[in-house]
Each structure stands twice: as C-alpha cells, then as structure tokens.
Amino acid sequence: MENNQTLITEFILLGFPLGPEMQLFLCIIFSLFYILTLLGNAVILGLICLDSRLHTPMYFFLSHLAIVDISYASNNVPKMLANFLSKTSTISFAPCITQTFLYMAFAHTECLILVVMSYDRYVAICHPLRYTVIMSWRLCTTLAIISWIFGSHLALVHVLLLLRLPFCGPQKVNHFFCELLSVLKLACADTRLNQLVIFIASVFILVGPLLLVLVSYMYILRAILRIQSGEGRKKAFSTCSSHLCVVGLFFGSAIVMYMTPNTSHPEEQQKILSLFYSLFNPTLNPLIYSLRNSEVKGALRRALGKDRPR
User: How many angstroms separate the CA atoms of 128 and 157, rounded?
Assistant: First the structure.
C-alpha cells in the first residue's frame, strides 16, 4: 500500500465544469470578491492598529477575524483563479495537504472567534458596568490564543488521519481546492474513522459554538427590548440581525457540508456551499461587523483627515 501511495504525486482539481467564456466570467467576478476581501479586511486592520479609540476588546477580536478572513480566502481563492485561466489544474500532493490543513485551521479558528465576539457583545450589552472588569486584556488575549491553538490542533488531527491513508488513484479532486471530504474520496482504504472524527469534531466546533452564539444573542435581544429609546432599540436590532445573518450563513453552510449524509447534496452543491464560507463570508464580514459601525466610520474619517478639529 505504501508503494501505491508514492505513485500519487499530484492531484487534478476539476473545479467548475463550464465553458471557457463562463470560466473567464467567474474568474473576473471571484477576483473582484477576493480584492474586496483583501481591501475591506486590510482597512479594518489598519484602522484598528492606527486609531487608539479602537483599542478595545471588541475591535481586538475584530482584528483577529480580519486576519482569519484574509488568510482563509488567500489559501483557497488564488489557486481557484489560476485554474480558471489554466488548461491543466494540477496541484502537488504536499501543497494539497497543506491547503487542506490551512483551510480547516482557519475555518475552526473563525468559528471560535465568532463565539468569543458574541460573548463580548453579551457582556457589553447585558453587563455594561462590569464590562471592563470582565473583558480584561488578559482574558481577551487568552481567548484569542486558545481559538488559534485549538483551531490549528483540530485541523492537524484531520490531516494526520488523512495522511495515514494510501492514495493510489484516481487523482481527480471534484472541487476547486483540496477540500477534506473531496480528497478523502480518493483514498484507497476505509475512511469510516475519518468520517466519524469529522462528524464528532463538527459537533464540537460547529453545533456547540452555534448554540453558544444563539444563547448569547437571546440574552442580548432580551436586553435590547428593555431599551427605552426607540431609536436605540432599532439600531441595536439592526446590528444584531446583521451579525446573526453572517453567523447563520457561515455555520449553516458548514453544518450542511460536514454533518449531513454525502448523498443528500450533490458535489456541485458542495462547491457552492464552500464558496459561501471561503469567499463570500470573508467579503461580507468587514461590511457587517465593522464598516457599518459609527466608530469605524469615525476612525476612517480621521485617518483620511476629514474629521480634524477646527
């Protein structure tokens, strides 16, 4: 089996089976989304670093989300764009496994960062007088480090279980990047252990965090209903609904991908679902979490010199 495994030195990414004109069109559209992802998240990072008024726990976690989104999109999208313009969409074995590890690590980390952000908003709205005491910089740093370490280690478990399998053909990965489930289908051995670990991990990294986010926002919404000001209540509802849309899109597509039977959704549908959390979500996050925020808008005006004191 080990000899057979060494025969596989590269995989072929099938991507989207479309005509040349449609592939060029998608390449342009996805390139625009990727550029918006880089620019939006880079602006958020720059403003948070440069403006001392944004040196708060909320924006500390937003900066980590921006880093995750830039890294996540950059791991998958450039190769997909290159394949749109190339006749041979091949990727070597080692880069393919590296891509699998990185996309799993960034996805897990984003799940945990979203949970931490919802907890931060819960404390800010439900316990405003104790906010600075509870959300100390020591706690914020610890939560961020735990999110990155746990996300990376869980991804490493999946990759190590993947590497124990022999790959003796076929070589065609029916996806636009080395997605874990698509690569598993090419293994020349029983993958039930891998599937079981993926399901169990999904319960802890998807269902568990999603429930924590929903519970946090239930308390937040209850606190919002007590707000006397109609304008303040409307603003808070608008912010929470936007956040929940992003969270629901990210967690929902991932849960459908990794916790439902493979026969329940065709492979082309899997690719579309992957686009949501690898390209569309990183583009939306800066708009939803930051650029609609008055504090960020104020920091942007100050950075551009349009809000100088007279």
Answer: 39
The residues, ordered by sequence, that sit 6+ positions from 267 with a Cβ below 8 Å of its Cβ are: 174, 175, 182
8 A C-beta contact, residue 40 and residue 289: no
- The answer to whether 114 touches 72, Cβ cutoff 8 Å, is no
Strands 10-13 and 90-92: antiparallel
Q: What is the pLDDT of residues 68-126, one digit of tens each?
A: 999 989 998 998 888 888 877 888 888 999 999 999 999 999 999 999 988 998 898 88
Separation CA 49–CA 33 (nearest Å): 24
Which ranges in 164-229 belong to alpha helices (H)?
Answer: 180-184, 192-202, 208-225
Which pTM does this prediction carry?
0.88
Single-letter amino acid code for the residue at 253: S
Return the SS3 of 23.
helix
Q: Residue ranges of the alpha helices (H) in the chain?
A: 2-6, 20-50, 57-84, 93-126, 131-134, 137-163, 180-184, 192-202, 208-225, 230-259, 267-275, 281-285, 294-303
Buried residues in 41-78 as b, exposed as e (16+ CB within 10 A): bebbbebbeebeebebbbbbbbbbbbbbbbbbbbbbbe
| Strands laid side by side in the 90-92 sheet | 90-92, 10-13, 172-173
pLDDT surpasses 70 at 276: yes
Looking at residues 210-235, what average pLDDT do you find? 79
Token reading at 97: 């496994």
170 preceded by cis ω (within 30°)? yes
Tell me which of 304 and 202 has the higher pLDDT: 202
First to last CA, the chain: 75
What SS3 class is residue 305? coil
Q: Which amino acid is at 160?
A: L
Rounded distance between C-alpha atoms, residue 244 and residue 2, angstroms: 47
